[in-house]
Amino acid sequence: MPDYNATSVATFDKNAARYADKYFALRDYDACYALITTELQGRPARFLDLACGPGNVAAYVRAQCPAAQILCVDRSAQMLEQARQRVPEVELLQADCRDLSAVPGRFDAAAFCFGLSYFDDADAALVLAALQRLLRPGAPLLLATVATVAGDPALSGEQQTAAGDKVYSFYREQDQIVALMAAAGFELMQASRIASPANASVASTDVVVLARRR
Question: The domain that contains 95 carries what CATH number?
């Protein structure tokens, strides 16, 4: 079977600069990102930004916690290039989120924002299990925004952009997202819903989850 995620990554590679220009400067999600920086309390922690895209979360963490050591991971080489241009002094690693064996060391906190909705349930479980292994016991994980689009699961599957590019998206309700995280070894700290940005391609209700590694 073809790798559905590779199809999505090819679309993000093709449109990385346009995506970054559209979304990087948005402040809509700053209150979500603040949940993780509050946990870090400005200390020199190791922070993992998984499925980092152009570096939105990493940029916020860098501004609020300048002493943090930040690793940005994405499968899209072009998204990593956008992060390199926009976020100073971060490490970059190209990797499939389902296989994080090349990610070094353990982390004090992580964010997986903008990624979960591009994996089916089996692969989402793989990603979350890999994150659990990379985090220190008690470390917080922020799973937020477009990564966890709340919607009818029946809408999941191949989506086509106006330009004809393909992306595979998987929609879940909030309780399904929390259950996936619990099964991977995360304890829920808080969950909320927010409206998607006004310039989003598709209007949605987004789910923000802060959890802690057991």
Answer: 3.40.50.150
Number of domains in the chain: 1
Asked whether 147 and 115 are in contact (CB, 8 A), the reply is: yes
Say if residues 208 and 193 touch (Cβ distance below 8 Å): yes
Domain that holds residue 208: 4-213
Residues 8/168, Cβ–Cβ less than 8 Å: yes
What does the pLDDT read at residue 161? Answer: 81
Q: What are phi and psi of 77, to 5 degrees?
A: -65, -35
Burial of 49 (0-12, 13-18, 19+ CB in 10 A): buried
pLDDT tens figures, 30-80? 999 999 999 998 889 999 999 999 999 999 999 999 999 999 999 999 999
Look over the chain and give the mean of its residue pLDDT values, rounded to a whole number: 91
130's tokens: 């890999």
Q: Which of 73, 119, 115, 112 has its CA nearest to residue 94?
A: 73
CA 1 vs CA 5, 115, 121, 124, 187: distances in Å: 11, 21, 16, 18, 34
- Tell me: the pLDDT tens digits for 78-110? 999 999 999 989 999 999 999 999 999 999 999
Q: How far apart are CA 201 and CA 214, in angstroms?
A: 36
What is the distance between the alpha carbons of residues 11 and 79, in angstroms, rounded to a whole number? 11
